[in-house]
């Protein structure tokens, strides 16, 4: 049987539905730009004007499972659901001009607490803070309005303005990924109930470094995982001179078990007289399409576009421009809870563009320039919601009920692999190893402690083989026979005489039976049958001639009995004991026996106990012996 963590197969469909609905609610509230906001819980989205944000770029927000706003931030200040700054919620080391300034990740084991990761704006902070950091927001504090209880804990630096996340393969933990500045290293930190672990570093892809003019342009731009968490897209730009730039887009494969990234494909756009730069990236809900926003100056005028790529395997193919040429820049691209994709617009635009069918190819994706109106101007950033949170399915341990043959062994293996957490094993036998060897039948269970998850599994191990006994070795009377039968539970059998009948009638001999059960386990037993004359005929001479001629020199009894006991005594004529034996094979004779005894008449007595085939019997005999020369 099998059981793992918190998942049961028959309710998996309900679990998936419930989790997806919960994530729609958690990503309901979008606050961004210069006071702009949208309620994504309505269709079409409802414009909001109650937000406290006035920011250039990266923002993020979170609601609870019922859709109540908890807090939002631009990476520098945290506002609660009343739109007031939280206690200790200012001075965070993100920046209002960082592309993906902030990212919220729930604690895996505490629904009231959240990690708030931040990355700075290096171009706006020369010589200042340059590291990825995290803070902690506790929603149980401050009367349920939240408090920043831990502030600006550094992780790694210097980093660029990219920050995203995806689930670990176990469905519970979270990978948070940033990118180094002046190098090609991706830093993947694991958020688990053991804390923030790592990083796992991957030195892969094209480096993000100063361009030829030492501008801050390469630090700018976004990255995002696809919903499956196995591909990461990242984009940025370089300044190559007046009206001349390069847009870069990398697609990487992500091993969400280990945190390792490998380069899959790259795209570069560099067009004369176009200072082009990549900024936003977003995958369609299926992950089969990737969208990139690019902006710049062409021949002195502003120009922006959105490109679509098909993701086939780990390759980017079928490049298509799906937007209308525009002088209004496209900023962040973000997937909404309903699966459509929105694009931020600049230059005072009070609307967002929208891709209504992002899984469709080319023009069929349904790009709408005026996708939704706003009550305030948009800017570069949209909420950095890292994905729609795939269903939480803990890793599964499978221990199968098994029958093995008696005398054999079996290995039960509960090994769980994790990139950064060392599992602890507790077997019902007391052993603490990932696997155990079973030598006896029984029910075996294991607890695997993996961070804050305890995975449980058990198995019933039975030992096969038909246990049977053909019976004790037997003595039969000469005319009798014995009926042997196969045991209950035998699936196949063979007698020692080659027959396969269910019974066997036997007399004297050694008889064996080999049996196999339904599992193919083989057992065998044998029974020895001997025969005797059950009348117990006894032959005793009445005279001996101890003259050493080898003929009639010794005295004793010859019997045909299944003896149980034997006592033979010889007396002289005065009743004195001359010889006694309890060995039926012993004889009265030389030396010191008959040959040394005088010629005389002797008396004897013989007492026997024997088996007559039905039960034990006794017999006593007496007589006389003549010793003659």
Layout of strands and helices, then pairs:
Elements lengths: L11 H15 L2 E4 L3 E4 L6 E3 L11 E4 L5 E5 L3 E4 L4 E6 L11 E6 L2 E9 L13 E7 L8 E10 L2 E9 L6 E7 L2 E10 L2 E14 L14 E3 L5 E11 L2 E12 L4 E10 L4 E10 L5 E10 L2 E12 L2 E7 L8 E6 L5 E5 L5 E5 L11 E7 L28 E4 L4 E4 L10 E4 L7 E4 L3 E9 L2 E12 L9 E4 L4 E4 L6 E4 L7 E4 L2 E8 L5 E11 L4 E3 L3 E2 L13 E3 L1 E10 L5 E5 L19 E11 L4 E12 L2
Parallel strand pairs: 28-33, 34-39, 41-46
Antiparallel strand pairs: 1-2, 2-3, 4-5, 5-6, 6-7, 8-9, 9-10, 10-11, 12-13, 13-14, 14-15, 16-17, 17-18, 18-19, 20-21, 21-22, 22-23, 24-25, 25-26, 26-27, 29-31, 30-32, 32-33, 35-37, 36-38, 38-39, 40-42, 43-44, 43-45, 45-46
Would you give the CATH topology of the largest domain?
A: Methylamine Dehydrogenase, Chain H
Count of separate DSSP helical elements: 1
How many beta-strand elements?
46
Mean pLDDT comes to 87
Q: What is the approximate shape? A: rod-shaped
CATH architecture grouping of the largest domain:
7 Propeller
Determine the strand fraction and express it as a percent band: over 45%
The number of domains: 4
What's the N-to-C terminus distance?
Answer: 89 Å
Low-confidence stretches: 1-22
Q: What structural category do the secondary elements indicate?
A: mainly beta
CATH level 1 name of the largest domain: Mainly Beta
Radius of gyration: 46 Å
The percent of residues in helical segments reads: under 10%
Sheet with most strands: strand arrangement: 41-46-45-43-44
For the largest beta-sheet, the strand count, sense and barrel status come to:
5 strands, mixed
